[in-house]
Automatic annotation (TrEMBL):
Keywords: Lyase, Menaquinone biosynthesis
Chain's role: Catalyzes the dehydration of chorismate into 3-[(1-carboxyvinyl)oxy]benzoate, a step in the biosynthesis of menaquinone (MK, vitamin K2).
Swiss-Prot/TrEMBL catalytic activity: chorismate = 3-[(1-carboxyvinyl)-oxy]benzoate + H2O
SUPFAM superfamilies: Periplasmic binding protein-like II
Keyword Lyase in annotation: yes
Protein name per UniProt: Chorismate dehydratase
Keyword Lyase: yes
Alphabetized Gene3D superfamilies for the sequence: Periplasmic binding protein-like II (3.40.190.10)
Signal peptide residues on this chain, from the entry's feature table: none
Entry similarity comment: Belongs to the MqnA/MqnD family. MqnA subfamily.
Domain of life: Bacteria
Organism lineage string: Bacteria, Pseudomonadati, Planctomycetota, Planctomycetia, Planctomycetales
Length: 284
């Protein structure tokens, strides 16, 4: 980390949830000239956009929305099936959802929930926030999106249906879903960032069980849950399949008005791609 009184070379933001711990192993020592801040995904996205951060692990939807952003690492937070920490709880059947409370920490999962409801059920509910620290019982919304560590604990209220959004996406598209990526602002010196982010991820992958043991104690979760979560629910490499999943997510976000059309494409072209047409291995 940057020494006290010395301006950091980079201001870096990372997610404070368990899902990001494997990406941060030894990062302060790998980037001693950096200042590392931990926060909720939505706040990191806002800080990066406002120039308060130079690089951050941000929600993938914000990578699409940002201007001049650069993807700087193949380290990411992704799932090929159930993710366990992104849940949509509903008090009614999915097709009857008219109001949706969105976790204030979420951007990508909020967009994904809206896309799944619109594309699969033709539902576009009224939105309201589920503020930080607000209980599920505090909102009367038909459905509630909860992300991060608190989504890993069972709710006290019985719900008509519960979606794991990672599973819903994978069953619908056959593609992995990428929740967060390392992104830098235009003009940032990224010469050392990519190597450091990848090396931190590599070290995290080698110590997943140790991370699971430590975080189980801190969070009050069963050890079997944290091990399963880090070793089976999540993976941390942005490969060709993950890029295809990102590309399709972007197409759907554009189609549903949740992300801007890429400058090089005409608006009508953003509606043509179907999941079966996504070519695995094509770069973004």
């Amino acid at each position: 980390m940057a020494e006290q009184g010395v301006l950091p070379r980079w201001r870096i933001g990372a997610v404070s949830y368990l899902n990001s711990k494997p990406l941060l192993v030894d990062l302060p020592s790998l980037l001693p000239a950096a200042e590392l801040r931990l926060d909720y995904p939505s706040r990191l996205a806002d800080d990066l956009a406002a120039g308060r951060l130079d690089a951050a692990l941000i929600p993938s939807i914000e990578f699409f929305r940002g201007t001049g952003y650069e993807l700087v690492s193949d380290a990411c937070v992704a799932a090929r099936g159930p993710v366990f920490s992104v849940k949509l709880y509903s008090r009614v059947e999915p097709g009857a959802i008219r109001s949706l409370a969105l976790d204030a920490g979420s951007r990508t999962s909020a967009a994904l929930a809206r896309i799944l409801l619109a594309e699969r059920y033709g539902v576009r509910p009224r939105l309201e926030p589920l503020e930080f620290g607000q209980s599920l019982e505090a909102t009367a919304a038909d459905a509630i999106l909860v992300i991060g560590d608190r989504a890993m604990f069972p709710p006290s209220e019985p719900f008509v249906s519960t979606w794991d959004l990672g599973q819903e996406w994978f069953e619908w598209t056959g593609l992995p879903f990428v929740f967060a990526v390392w992104v830098a602002r235009k003009g940032t010196d990224t010469s050392a960032l990519a190597a450091a982010f990848s090396e931190a991820r590599n070290r995290g992958e080698r110590t997943l069980e140790a991370i699971a043991h430590r975080e189980a104690r801190l969070l009050g979760l069963p050890l079997a849950t944290t091990i399963e979560y880090l070793t089976r629910n999540l993976h941390f490499r942005l490969g060709s399949a993950e890029r295809s999943g990102l590309r399709w997510f972007r197409e759907l976000a554009v189609r549903n008005g949740l992300a801007p059309v890429e400058p090089r494409r005409r608006p009508d072209e953003a509606h043509r791609l179907q999941p079966s047409e996504v070519a695995w291995g094509r770069s973004m």
